[in-house]
Structure formats: C-alpha cells, structure tokens
Amino acid sequence: MEFRTKIEIDKPHFQIEPCEEILFVGSCFADAIGRRFSDEGFPATINPYGVMYNPASILHTIERWIPTQLEKGKLPRIVFLTLGTNHVYRLKSTGEIVDNCEKRPQKLFQEEVLSVDTCVDYLRQAVVLLQKHRPDIQVVFTVSPIRYRKYGYHESQLSKATLLLAVDKLMRLESLDTLDNLDNSRLSYFPAYELILDELRDYRFYASDMLHPSEQAVGYIWERLVDSCFSPAACQYLEEWRPIKQALAHKPFNPESKEYQAFQAHTQELLAAFRQKYSIR
Fold first, then answer.
1. Number of C-beta neighbours around residue 247 at 10 A
2. 234-243, pLDDT tens digit by residue?
C-alpha cells in the first residue's frame, strides 16, 4: 500500500552539469538549497545582497548583481529564484519598496500586498534583464514552503497562492513580441513547495519552530532536484565527491597517529585527482 502522495516532477529542458556556476536569489529557502550546492562543490552565489522575500526585492537584486557579473565577463547559465511572500514594505517618505527595513521603526513603513499581475511584472522584468545579457540563461522558479506566522496562516496561504499563480502566468505568457522579448521557453518551475506540503506533509519534516523545513526535508528536496535536473555527468560527479567529502569531514581519535597521517595523505591525493578531473581551482 502507498501511504503518501508522490509528486511527479517533469524533466526540465536543461540539465545541471558538474561544478556549474549557479545564482540563488530569494527567501531563506534559497539559502538552504544554495548552501547544499555549495557543500557539494558547486560555485554557487547565494543572495549576494541578503535574503529577498518578494518579487520586487528579487528584481532589485538582479538589477544590482548583473553589472558586477558583466565586469567579470559573463553570467551563469542557471538562476534559481525562490519566492517567499507577496508582502512588501514601502518607505513612507519616498514610496520605494525596501528590501530590508534595517531595524528602523515600523511607523516609517507601509505594508502592501502585491497582486498576481504586479508580481508577474516584477518577475518578468527580472527575467528579461537576465535574458538580455545571456539569451540561453535558464531561470528556475520555486516557491518557499516556509510559512509566515506573522500574517496568520490563512493569509500566508493566500500569499503563497498569489506567488504560484504569478509564476504560472509568467510561464504561460503569449504575445512575446510585446513583452520586451521575454522567452518563457527557458523558464522552469521546481515544486519545492508541493514536496513539503503535499508529499512529506508531516511535522517531523519541520524544524523546531514548526515553520521552516528541517534539514532532513531540505535533503529530500535536494535528492528530488538531483533526480530531475542533474545530468548523468553531474550525478557521477556527486558519486565521486561523496567519499572524498566524508573523508575530509572525518574527525580522528588520534590525529597524530601514523594511520591517520597516511589516511590524510591518501585523501589529499584523491582530492587533487578529483580537482584535476573536474578542473576545480
């Protein structure tokens, strides 16, 4: 008997290759997944200007980050954008949406809820800007499964629904010639939100605050991401990296022993060969 609902994940039209550079922008869930890529040796850039929860702030990061990358020569081929909420805060004195209130008094800001169409517009601008500088760029959208208790759980669900509708609408947009040459064929959605709420669906997969996914849950999402998005070469890379990573993390009982010194020397030899094979600096 099957005691859970299994989320079927369609294979995307691209594959992640070994040691590929990837940008992660969005909520703290983007941090969690991005760190997993980094731990596995991928050169991941994770929220270069801090955690960004809403579509407007994600656009602000893309606008600031692209010039710095162009100075280095190019943009990565793959970008993950993780949406957390459609709630934004405007500075009353200027009307601008701020990315971080920087612990300033709440009375200085006005909270606002973005509509589906407004979210679509911010995300469209971010995608168009990325595609302008790298036409083959692949943008993967995820919606964070982290709930926002401060809104109330019903409002939190409405917020997630708005984001899900916005991503779906962006990926289905037609009449592309009138939309700044948006190429939505290079947009994908990975169902991290659904994996937590519909497949795992148990409080044992949440951290102690009962809001954030546990380390085990993030690990499961990572496994499903590997299965659906990684190339055979990237999967082989992970298999080869796993024992070396475990050896590097090994804590000896007696670090001065000859046995451990030999073990460490052998591990460094394996690491050097691995780095050479995959051209890792």
1. 15
2. 999 999 999 9
